[in-house]
Amino acid sequence: MPNLSLAYVSIIAATCISTATYAGDLRVPSQYRTPQAAVNAATTGDVVLLAPGVHAGPVDCLGKAITLRGEGASGTTILSGGASVLRFTTNETSSTIVENLTISGGTGNEGAGVRIINAAPLLRNCRIISNVAAGAITCRGGGVFVSGGSPRFEACLIGGNTVQSSGGPAHGGCNSGDQATSNGYGAGMYIENAAVTIIGTTISGNLLHGSASGCNAGVMAMGGGVYKIGNGPLLLENCIITSNVVEAFASAGCNAPCCSATGGGLFLTAPATIRGCRISGNSQTGCGTLVGGIRFESAGIVVDSTRICGNTPSNLTGAFIDAGGNLVAIECPANCAADVNQDGKVDGVDLAAILTSWGACAP
Fold first, then answer.
1. Contact 23/31 with Cβ under 8 angstroms?
2. Which among 92, 90, 35, 40 is positioned nearest to 68, based on CA atoms?
3. Are 217 and 255 in contact (CB under 8 A)?
4. pLDDT tens digits, 130-152
């Protein structure tokens, strides 16, 4: 009988050891040297935990239903570098989750920060900042590039990203014939033919710069904050879109230059809904249709309980469906201290934002 008891104890101990070893948490760098190595090893339901610090990109999520999570306080875990720092290009679903990461230092000409192709990941509490899409005639999505799929962004910051397209030979610009062309779209985020949901997110300080010179020079520069085109609905809810810039310059040695530039904050085609947002302080300079705020490119875009104010040189162009509770003004009214999300009213959304941040402030 004692030997039998010993056998049971051995089985239980082995089971505990097995459970501890295969708990589903893969730690970087203590267990895996790089985030990609941990993703490669992960299986469905696993959590890849990145310690605070800077980790080298790029990272491809490989279609896996896993969570990629930064440990530590917001902004302390950074994924940096690569032509698209973070990639979802293998039919990822909403079971692929990225949380509490700063995604920075990306390059390339499409989706320098995040690249999503026909995928539906969830990005939550992420900071997509200081990525640059440049070096080509056509550049799209300094922060985020989305083509197809249905991704969701919650409580993120998409800021300080850049699209900088350079003039080159004729390539689908706004002129025809022998020309220098520069095409830039969506410094913060570029969206085409996708169903994208963006909740409680700030899109701020993104720069779209386009310039070209030469015979029949042509510049296209649209959507400093967000450029959205094609099928698939866009929902912007309780978001702040501010301080985004489109600047476009075209000069021609012969014939007149062509400049199609607009939408310092947003360039949108239907279907799209803007609800409970603040769109302010965006601008456009140089040539083109000078609209600092929003270019409504097609009919059918719904705007609800949103402030559109203080954009230069103008707030908007084009028609939208007014669902009520909107403010469009040359100057934004004085801030209400309790209106946390600056949508012109104090409600449960403001209370939730306060409760989420409850506790001692960082030193």
1. no
2. 35
3. no
4. 999 998 889 999 999 999 999 99
